Amino acid sequence: MDHPLPASDALVRPWRTAAYAAGALAAVELLLLLVIGGGRLAGYVTERVELAAKESVVATPAQVAPAARKKAPPAVAKHPRSKTVVMILNGNGRTGAAAAAASSVQSHGYRIGDVTNAPRRVAKSIVMYRPGFAGEGKRLGRDLGVRLVTPLDGMRANALKGAHAVFILGP
């Protein structure tokens, strides 16, 4: 039969002291692991930053091979403006902006293709050209004062409905 402990023995709890000691030891081990892991992580990050810095260094003209210094000849328009069809897309959300832009494009002598809204808004006006029409695209960009002129991106050539270039009107 079990007997209750006398009151003086009931207050002694050696397990509590052992639990505090084990918890303190675990906290010290965790801190040590964090310090070691943080040091290794910092070393890895430093190596990656140094590697990226070395890769981004621009070569001086003397270091560039003579063949690499030659620029590709600028794209020249092969077709006159009257034979170049331009699709106009309204990418700024203002009603009637595409029609106004179409009038401006037509006043420069271009033929107008489809005039409609862009699928989403754009931050800047952009001229895109289909393959083989880089000269026409760059000329259209110069005529309209659009600095962002790129090859067709995000649209397939068959979506142009016969147009050679696309003018997406931004804000």
Descriptive labels:
single chain; 171 residues; alpha/beta; Alpha-Beta Plaits; 2 domains; five-stranded mixed beta sheet; 5 helices; 42% helix; elongated
Helix tally equals: 5
CATH architectural name of the largest domain = 2-Layer Sandwich
* N-to-C CA distance: 91 Å
| Main beta sheet strand tally, sense and closure | 5 strands, mixed
- Which sequence of SSEs, written as H and E, runs from N to C? HHHEHEEHEE
What is the strand content?
Answer: 5-15%
Shape: elongated
Mean pLDDT: 80
Fraction in helix: 40-55%
Spatial order of the strands forming the largest sheet: 2-1-5-3-4
Secondary-structure-derived class = alpha/beta
Number of domains: 2
Query: CATH topology of the largest domain, anyone?
Result: Alpha-Beta Plaits
Low-confidence stretches are none
User: Total strand count, please?
Assistant: 5
Q: What Rg do the Cα atoms give?
A: 35 Å
CATH class (first level) name of the largest domain: Alpha Beta
